[in-house]
Amino acid sequence: MALDAIRIDDDDFCFDTLALIERSFAVTLPKDLRHIATAGDLFDEVTRLRPPTGTGERCDSAMVFYLLRRIFATVRPGERIAPDARLADISELPPKGLRSFLAAQTGLAMPGIRLGMTALAALLLTPVVVVLAAWWIDAFTAVAFAIAGVLLFLSDRGAFSGPWESLRSLSLAIAQENVAALAEIGARDRPEDWWRRFACILADAAEPVGEEIRPLTARRIARHTRIELV
């Protein structure tokens, strides 16, 4: 059953969700979106700026999967790489390095990398250590610990989680980030295809209003679903 409304954090919507929609569909949305009330309103704005042509015959995520599989086959010759293959098992590069490598090889936008344990440890421990050093030792030592924490955070190589867990999850995430680009090279380019990816973007950023069901699936977002910013 479709939801009457979804709730999205105002900052996340303005700086992340809309930015992803613009990047994926290769459009520049107007700054004033006060006329947008529902998911259908926003989708109409996107397709007004870049209408789907109704051409293309190939599944976008399948296109991405076969492209990625060919790339991995060059570094793992003779190995059968299935959709459920874990990237941690088939990649010789750390997550951040793999992201840069695949972006260069495919020319496609890549999903973000989640923080690894190194970055999380730096975020959690550095403020505590800096405060203790300033209190018990001196300001110079506190600054040194702060710099060390920043360097530790920057050295983080990311985590093979979320979109980067498996070849399947990565293929779906890349397809979601590159709707217009994939349409130009043969992906199905019909309004319903674009709506499916558009609804996935909203679902990833939103939570249902009046329900506790998580995760929110794109199928529960309809044209009439209101977008409530909080």
Architecture overview:
- This protein has 230 residues and is mostly helical.
- Helix 6 (117-136) runs antiparallel to helix 7 (139-154).
- 28% of the residues are buried.
- The chain has helices at 10-25, 39-49, 60-75, 87-90, 95-106, 117-136, 139-154, 167-177, 179-183, 191-205, and strands spanning 5-8, 207-208, 226-229.
- The protein contains 10 helices and 3 strands; from the N terminus they run βααααααααααββ.
The tally of strands reads 3
Describe the sheet with the most strands.
3 strands, mixed
Helix content: 40-55%
What oligomeric state best describes the polypeptide chains here?
A: single chain
Extract low-pLDDT stretches: none
Spatial extent as radius of gyration? 21 Å
Strand order of the largest sheet: 2-1-3
DSSP summary: helix tally: 10
Average pLDDT confidence is 84
The global form is globular
Global structural class:
mainly alpha
Task: Report the sheet-strand fraction.
Answer: under 5%
> What is the count of distinct domains?
3
Q: What order do the SSEs take from the amino end to the carboxyl end, as H and E?
A: EHHHHHHHHHHEE
| Alpha-carbon distance between the two ends | 24 Å
